[in-house]
Structures are given as C-alpha cells and as structure tokens.
Amino acid sequence: MNRASLRAAFFAALSILVAGGLVVGLLPNYWVYLITAVFILGIALQSLGIVTGRTGMISLCQMSFAGVGAWTVGYLNFIDFPGGLPLWLLLGGLAALPFGIIIGLPALRLRGINLAIVTLGFASAFDVVLATITYPGQTNFKMVARPAGMEGDVGYFMFVIMIYALIAVVLEFLNRSRLGASWLAVRHSERAAAAHGVSIPTTKLSAFAISAFIAGVAGGLFAGYLGTLVAENFSMMQSLTLFAVATMAGSQFTLGAIIGGVLVSLFPELLRRLNVPQDFGSVIFAAGAVQALSTGESISETFMRLGGKIVPKGLFKRAKAKTHKLPAAKTFAKDVPALQVQDVTVRYGNVVASNKVNLTVPHGKVVGLIGPNGAGKSTLVDAITGFLPDYEGDIRLGDKSLNGVSVTERARLGVRRTWQTTRIAPELQVGEYMRLAAGSDLSDDEVEAVLDWFNCPPANTPIASIDAGTRRLLDVAGIVAARPPVILLDEPAAGQSYAEAVRLGERIRQIPETFGSSVLLIEHDMDLVRSACEEVTVLDFGTVIAHGAPANVLETPIVQKAYLGVDHELEASA
Amino acid sequence: MNALELNKVHIKRGDIPIVHGVDIVAKPGEISVLLGANGAGKTTILEGTSGVIPIASGDIVLEGAQMCKASAGHRARSGIAHVEQGRTIFAEMSTEDNLRVGLHPESGLEQAYDLFPELKTRANVKSAMLSGGEQQMLVIARALLGKPKVVLIDEMSAGLAPVVVARLMQAVRLLADQGLAVLLVEQFANLALDIGDRAYVLRRGEVVYDGSCEILRNDPAMLHHLYLGDMEKDSA
Amino acid sequence: MNSLLTPAMAGLSAGGAYAILGVCAIFTYRLVAVVNFTGAAVGACGAFIMVALVEMGMPLFPAVVLGIAAGALAALFVGFITTIWFSGANGSVKAAVTAALLVGFIALGLRLTGGQHPKRFPDILQGAWLRLADVQITNASIAAIGLAIVLTIAAEQFLNRTRTGLELRALSERPMAAELLGIRVRLLALIVWAIAGAVTAFALMLIAPLRSPDFASLSLLIVPALAAALIGAFKSFRAALFGGLAIGIIEGLASGLVGLNQYRAAIPFIVILLVLLWSQREARWDESR
Asked: pLDDT tens across A238-289, in order?
C-alpha cells in the first residue's frame, strides 16, 4: 500500500464527508432527501465505471445487478432477517456477484461488443422475471427498515454518504493497485496485458464481480431509500440511461460518479421546475454520451484537464537531491542458454512464415535479430511469447520447454517482450505502469532509478502527457525493471532521434550486466544493432541465412543480397 | 509537366515525426524509385500521398491541383492509384470480381488481361487461392483499371521468387512506357534501379540522394553506403 | 397435439420478425461494421409515423410508404453519426454510440407516442391464411415469415449479383483498399443504413398488431434480433433466418406451458448466453486485441 494511494483515499473520504456535512448543514430536508439519491446513484455509477470506464466492456444491465441487491434486501426485510440494513446490503451485494460472473463469462475470450449484447439480454430478461416474481413486501406495503437512529431523511443521508465514502476509498486503493492497472491495460490491449503476465480471464471476471457487488449494494440502498420498490425502478431503460450518463460524466472517477448522480436525480427536477417534459433529460444524456465518445473526453475528464492547467509546471520533476539505487541484478543458471529456438516452423495457411529457425540467446548476452521486411522476425517473436501457439519445433527457456504454455504463463516464467506500437494505457501514471510491468516488489526508489537510467520521466507523470517516443522507452524500462531471464525488444528505436538511438543502444548493451537478463533485439536500425549486440542472426524468407558478430555479418554477400535485392547473376540464371 | 509533386512534405505517425520535409516528383512516362532501409519512411510517404494517413505539412500536387486536404477516395478518383504493400486483395472474391471493384467506365477488363494474361485463366478462381505472384499482379492490374494518372506501388517484390519479381518489374516498365507516372517503393535496390529513371534514397525520413538511377546502378559502393552505412563514421 | 402446435404456430410470426431484424442486424454489421442497438427503434419510428398518418385520415397504402421512408430517415440519422463522427472508431465505440442513442430514441418515442399505452395498429393484413381444426396461421405471420425469407435471399443476391453489392463486399472486407480504388465509402454506408431502416420499419408494421405495440417494447425487439444475428455469427443470413424462427417457436412453445409462460421473454437471453459460450471455444489472439 503506497503513500500516493493513502493520500488519494484520505482526500476522497474527506471531501465526501465535507460535502455531506455542507448538504446537511445548509439545505432544507427536501433537498437532503433528493441529494441522497445523488449518492446512491453515484455508487451505481462507480460500479459501471469499473466495467465500462476502466475495463472497457460495455455493460447495459447495471441496474439489473442493483435490482438483484434490492430484491435481496427486500426479502431479508420481509423475513425479518437479523443484522439490519448494513448486513443486508452486504448480502445484497454478494447475491448480485454471481450474476456478474455469469454475465462476464461469455466475454472472457471475445471482444467487448458481445458483452454489450449479453448484458442487454440480461437486462431484458431480468425485467420479465422481476415483473413476474415482484418485490417482496410490494403487496403488503412492508417498508424496508432503515438502520436504528438513521430512520429520518437526514439520518439516512448520513448512512448513505458513509457507505459512499467507504466504497470510494476502497476503489481508490483498488484503482491504484496492480489489479486496477490491469483493468486499464486489458481495456487498452489484451495482448500487451497478457504479455505482462496479467491473466485476462481473472482481470475481466474480477471487474465484473466487483462491479456487480457494488451495484447490488447500491440497489440495497435504494430499497432503504424508497421503502418499497417496483420493477420499473430497475428496468432496462434505467440501465441504458445509467450507461449513457456514465459515459457522459466519466463515472470511473469519483468526481464523474457524483456529476452523473446529479444529472440523473436532479436534472429531471430542474426540468420539472422549468415545465419541460422530464424524459427530455434522457435525450440530453444520449447526446452528451455521443459527444463524450466522439471527443474521447467525459465531463469529469474535462474538469480535471482544466484543473490540471492550474497545477504549476515542474511538478513532475524528479527530486534531484536523492541518489536512486538500481534494483540488484537477478542471477539465472549460467550453464544453459537463456533462450533456445529449435527447428521452429510457423505456417499461416499455405504460407510458411518461419522455416525451421534455430536461434540461441546465450546467458548474459545481447543478440540481434535482423532481416528485410516480411522475413519472419515478428512471427518469431509471436511464437516465442506464445501468441502463435501452433508452431512446430521447440522453444526452451533455460532447461524448460515452453510448448503448450500460455502467453500469460510464459510472461510469468520470464519471457518478456516490448511492442512496435505503444500499447501502454494512457490513463495510468508512469509509476503505476512500472508496477504493472515489473510487479510490486520494487521500492519507489528503485522504480525512479530504472526510469532515470532510461531517461524516462518520473513516476508521478501521467502517461497521457508524454510523447510516443518516450512511451516506447518506458515500455522497455518496465520490462527491464522486472529483470526476467529473457527480454525480447521489438524495434525499440523506431521514432527515436539518432542521438537517442545511440544512447538507447548503449543502455541495451548494459542490460545483462546490470540487471541479469539476456536480450534478443529485433531492429532495423543498423547503428543501434552495432552498438548494442555481440551477435546477430539474419532472417530472410523465414530462414536463418547468417549468424555471427555484427561487423562480419553485415559484410557478407548473402546479407547484402537480402537487403539490396536479387543480384544480377542470379536474375540472369533464373 | 510533373504528374505528381510532393513539396516539403512532413508526416507523423501518432506524434512521432517520420518524414521530414521531402521533395519528390513523378513524371508521365517515367518511374521514380524510392529506396532506403526499413523504417526510412518510404511506405509512410506513399500513404501520405494517397491519403491513407494525413500529412503534417507540405503540398501534394496532382497535375497542378492541390490534393493534401482531399480524402483518400477523392484522390483515388482524381487519379492517384495506390498499390499497398501486403497484396490487399479482396480474398473472399474471385479474381474477376476483384478487378471489377473500382473499374472505370472507360476501362475494360481486357486491359488487365493484356498486361497479365495469367489472370485471365484464373478469372473465376477465388483470389485467396492465387499464388503470391498472381495476387501481386491482381492488385497492380486492379489499380490500373481506375484510369489513374500516377500509380504508387509499395514493396511489390516482398516474399516473391526472383523470376516473378522480374516479370512484375517488366510490367511496371511497360506501364510507364505507355505514359503513366510511377512512384515505386522497393526494398531491393538493384531490381528497382534496373527499370527506374529517377531515384530517391531515404534515410531516417530525409532524402539523402536525389538523382538518376543510372549513377547509383553503376556505383554499388555508394549504394551500399547509403543503405547499410555507418552514420557514426559519416559524422566522424 | 394441438395444445403444442397452436402456440408453436403463434410463435412463428414473432420468429419471422426476429429473423427480419436479425438479418438487418447482420446486414449493417457486415457492411458498415456497426452492431446497431437502435436497429429496432428506427423501425419503430417508421411504424408509429404510419399509425399517426392513418389516424389523421390518410389511406393505408401511402401511410405505409411514408412510414417506410421515415424508418429509412431515422436509420440515416444514426448512420450519419456513426459514419461522419466515428469513421475511425473501433466497433466497441460505435456500439456504445448506438446504445446511447437508443436511450434518446426510446425517451423521445415514448413522449411522442403517448407513453406505454399501446397504440391501435391497423392490421395491414387481416384474417387467417390457413385454419385446420384449432390451429390457425394468420396472414400476418405468413407475411412475416415470407418477408424474412425474401429478405434473406434478396440480401444474398444483392451482395453477390449487383455492382453496388460488389462494392459493398469490397468495402466490408478491406475498407481502405476499397477507398483507394475510388469507391464512395460514405455514400455506400448511408445506403446500407437507409435500406436497413426501411426494411425494419415495414417489418415492425406487420408484427406490431401481434405484440404490445408501445414504442419501448418494439425498440427492445433488438434483443431477440441480436440473438438471431449471433446464431448467424453476424455473418450468415440463412443461419440468422433459422435462428430467428427457432427463437420464435421456442417462445411460442414456452407460452403454452404453465409455469414457463411468464418467463418466455427471457429465452433470447439464454440463447445469447449459450451461443456466446459456444462460439468462444476457439477464440484466438487476433490483431485487434
């Protein structure tokens, strides 16, 4: 649990409680009653923020999860279950949780659109079931009992705001944890997340389960708020509206959740006073959501961006006084090569992309892999990291065969890669990304040291604020900080200036000695290859055509031919 | 008159600048060859020219008309044909259906079959079943049927056997001889220099050589240096 | 025997409607790459405008024609937004856009059509087509099934036989390659939207009298429609046709069984869940992830 999370959590709790105090102190009871709904909806919106805002899966059934929680609370009240509302809320959330998991299952290995369909299906099915079974207590008007001492509107407001603060604080911690970073990583690129050793199914299901739980709690609070419920409170239309508002306001942020709550509960009130039909609000929400989707910026993000302009520049400077110490190098078995690729063949249909390739990355060395476009370099990286599981031959990490091992598992065993195009979630901070990539056992100081070593910005810099070239460096820094036995760097110098490329080459050359990892460097930039590699392997037409020291290999006729084209004699004889 | 002119063109990918102010021309009846190592920015220039990606600054002029604000579709209809790398056939369609997409009312399929008689015998075959060389012929022929003024061809030799490549090069020369302007991107310099008229060599997004193909063809050492050369030694 | 056959036959007309909407969903997904959650809502716009015109005293035929045109216009509105503002966005964002628009459509639709009180829809086709003992098949259900079949065949023929169809196939397979060949990408996309909207509007006019015809219920027919489209893997028109009919028949059968009757509207959800669980068994890493 690091200091940044604690500070953020404390700040969130404090601001919510102060806001609550102001509401109670300054506003008449009617408004306190109305604003209670803002916070209950805020909880429901935060639940949607986890699945849709953070993990990027469209959920159109959030109010159905809330409905499950509300029904459970209603039932427990009906049978006079001991423990009162606080316990019932917990049970309501737990009742919604398995629904979240079942709905999440079809999205584990398929794209997000399918999830939108299955959630809409669930919302419509839930409507039907609820209309049939009705709410417990609906017929005999047994009101849900509020907690003792909090029966009044002000009392219940205090109860709701405490639950809201509790959830906001827990989410603040979760969002800054490795799990929270995994949610964003999965949203941005499942492939990159898996290559960090993140389990995609666990990440998606956890998002859904936690989201359903929180929605269930929000539903329970609604039961206490309204006393008795009808099916319409949790209809599909409510879920759809919640989705539109969450998209418009940016409900993955505490601020966005409150703004959204205000929109849903107070906006119709405003329209009523202006004598405008209240369903006009939904039209505005729809337009607002479309607007947010097209600009890629929700209301809360706009506020934060404008707020960010007030923050003085230079905040993201690394404290110069301290000297940062790099993490200790890891030691791996020296007697076996770090990585061995043995007779690996990859086919796409009839095309052989990689033909009986043999390649060894010896312990403690940097090996270059070069070749013209379409020579099969990326194919080989995909095969080694597990993205193309159907290869023939054997790939060994140390003395262990990787055949049949999943992408996530290979990453955890220590085969790590970077990407040609940046796949880092822009919502993260540099330090959060480093912990996602390198695990949590590094100290803050060691993280800063690695960042400094690669000339990356300090840990508290938002990734959205750094350019693509630096993001690629950060990609490398994260993998190196993890100190795995094998690192595959896929064209790390693309887009770097000449001076930057030379400096990067220098750093790459020092990786084995400094961090203990062995490196396979895929690169087009011959200057970088010369400065970083002790050995190079040349691929052409999916076959290894040369291997040896860089200076020698680049001079061989066969390599020059591969780069410059078919030579004249060959053409004449063909 | 030049068919196509690029003036001081800068192009970025995302926020990485890739191409830094290049000047390139293509003339009717001539082949301009764009050479350079991987990552030098050749494909990026073609994509900026045809409108696949926007350019950051500079001019793209087609027969006197400014093109850099126009959509890719508009540029195509105005006469810039772009044969992308990777043989972008419509794999689910037959050879003939592929040719029919974008067929100009004044062109006929015979034009394609005259250039590549191989395609006629495979007219009704699903294009995914064609060989790599036939697929490359297909996409070149397909671009031709839109009656373009200039054709941009990207890496047509990638992964093809030398005999097939020679056949394609011959066909491209023929197109130029019929009056078309061709801008050819090629990784294999020797092949392109054999058929080309004017050559540009790119390095890190800048033109480091602009001149006749013949000079480069006769000076392999210079070519080798431009391609695989060591920048550190250059600056030293 | 009849106790099963009657409800199954009753389900046929609903099945025909699901099939039509499912085919339209595949049509839009295949050709403009959007999973359109407003698919039924745009049709509902057309259907209700037809009703309004009839109530104002317009004869049935021109009212139907104008209603169909209104459906096409409503679909064009969604099409404009997705093609102009979201041309570069991925499928998930476009789906989110249509889901958000659905909120606006339903709210506006309910307001303009007088809320959840069902409207009286004129029966475009009255009477029974076939009556055998207790089992009767109405003209409307035959029309719905017929339209579904005709539409499936027409969609296939249109794509395979016409020049526009050829360009649309090229567009759906490789949008950039198609644009580089000079195809008018936006115009074609808008044509696809208009066709889908027009067909849906007509389909909803046919089946509205058989359901509870309020705007929200008709809009939410998108759920069984997407279930049918999923059965066709968002690719095969024929599989979606059979899928839609099957869902309708199963619903019909369920309505005949005491105890299941109230839950029959949950069947599309179960179908969606099962189809998705089945279809992800072979899912692999692809570039888009």
From this structure: 999 999 999 999 988 888 898 999 998 888 888 888 888 777 888 999 999 9
Residues 394-433 of A with CB under 8 A from C: 407
Q: What is the DSSP letter of C118?
A: P
- Nearest residue to A191 via CA among A443, A511, A408, A442: A408
- Look up the domain containing B160 and give its range: 4-235
Q: What is the DSSP letter of A457?
A: P
In angstroms, what separates the C-alpha of A341 from chain C's closest C-alpha? Answer: 21
Beta bridge partners of B19: B11
Per-residue pLDDT of A76-117, as tens digits, reads: 998 888 988 999 999 999 999 999 999 888 877 766 678 889
C184: left (phi over 0), alpha (psi -120 to 50) or beta: beta
Q: Chain A residues with CB inside 8 Å of C268's CB?
A: 121, 124-125
**Residue among B16, B187, B223 whose CB faces A372 most closely:** B187
User: What CATH number belongs to C2-282?
Assistant: 1.10.3470
Residues of chain B with pLDDT under 70: 228-236
β-strand pairing of B150-154 with B181-185: parallel
Whichever domain contains B180, its CATH number is 3.40.50.300
Cβ of residue A540 closer than 8 Å to a chain B Cβ = no
Instruction: Please give the average per-residue pLDDT across C115-126, as a whole number.
Output: 67
Inter-chain CB proximity A124 and C110 less than 8 Å: no
- Please report the pLDDT score of residue A570 as a whole number: 40
For the stretch A199-209, pLDDT in tens is: 988 999 999 99
Rounded (10°) angle between helices A444-453 and A468-482: 130
B14–A541: do the CB atoms touch at under 8 Å? no
Q: How far apart are CA B209 and CA A446, in angstroms?
A: 47
The pair of structure tokens assigned to B27 is 């003339």
Chain C neighbors of B106, CB-CB under 8 A: none
